[in-house]
Amino acid sequence: MYHSDLMRHPDSCPALVLNADYTPLSYYPLSLWNWQTAIKAVFLQRVDIVSEYDREVRSPNFAMRLPSVIALRQYVKQSEHPAFTRFNLFLRDRFCCQYCGSPSDLTFDHVIPRAQGGRTTWENVSTACAPCNLRKGGRTPAQANMRLFEPPIRPTSWQLQENGRSFPPHYLHQSWRDWLYWDIELEA
Fold first, then answer.
1. 67 within 8 A of 49, measured Cβ to Cβ
2. Are 50 and 71 in contact (CB under 8 A)?
3. Is 158 helix (H, G, I), strand (E, B) or coil?
4. Bond into 29 cis (ω within 30)
5. d(CA 94, CA 82)
6. Rounded to an integer, what is the distance from CA 111 to the centroid of its chain?
7. Is the CB of residue 172 less than 8 Å from the CB of residue 165?
8. Which residues of 31-43 are buried (b: 16+ CB within 10 A; e: fewer)?
9. DSSP annotation of 86
10. How far is residue 35's CA from residue 85's CA, in Å, rounded to a whole number?
11. Residue 110: enclosing H or E segment and its boundaries?
């Protein structure tokens, strides 16, 4: 099969977004913008083009190669502590049950159950597979004779980004190699 950037549809040419210090805004999910958003940011002079695809987009009086890597001109300060969301909780716990290690059928578990006064906070919620969550029920881990692999903590954004590096995306363009740090085969 013949595969070339020249033959790619623009929708298959996302731009990797780097902060002004040339680090990715996010590893997981990987900070990508679609080609329309990237081009708009170029025209609004909000980003610099670092690398381009061979693919061009054209209008009657203009042609432009699609950016494959862009860097923000203004530095975006990352929040020290990320929002408490289901996704961020699973990322903190590396997408596995904190009781048995299973990566399947994940839910979240209140370590101290709400019925016993437990709150929905970083420090009281852990990732659990549905079978372990059901087995634990409305008890504490000690009451259920279950042990957590890691006690729940409030992660920093840096910790979540480090965990995100363990989950490389299925597709990485060759031009992104210098900006990302996964030890996997990159597509050309």
1. yes
2. yes
3. helix
4. yes
5. 15
6. 25
7. no
8. bbbebeebbebbe
9. H
10. 28
11. strand 106-110
Q: Phi first, then psi: what are they for 47, rounded to 5°? A: -135, 160
Rounded distance between C-alpha atoms, residue 23 and residue 130, angstroms: 37
User: Which one-letter amino acid corresponds to residue 75?
Assistant: Y
Q: Which of 126, 132, 93, 130 is closest to 112 using CA atoms?
A: 126
Record the tokens describing residue 155, joined without a space: 């992660």
CB 94 within 8 Å of CB 102: no
For the beta carbon of residue 94, count every other beta carbon within 10 angstroms: 16
Distance from C-alpha of 111 to C-alpha of 33, rounded to nearest angstrom: 37
For residue 5 the two structure tokens come to: 């950037």
Q: Digits of tens for pLDDT over the chain (188 positions)? A: 334 444 568 888 999 999 999 988 887 778 899 999 999 999 999 999 999 999 999 889 989 999 999 999 999 988 888 889 998 999 999 999 999 999 999 999 999 999 999 999 999 999 999 999 999 999 999 999 999 999 999 999 889 888 887 776 766 778 887 777 654 444 44
Residue 187, amino acid: E
Q: How far apart, in whole angstroms, are the C-alpha atoms of residue 71 and residue 21?
A: 8
What DSSP state is assigned to residue 147?
A: -
Picking from 46, 43, 44, the residue whose alpha carbon sits closest to that of residue 17 is 46
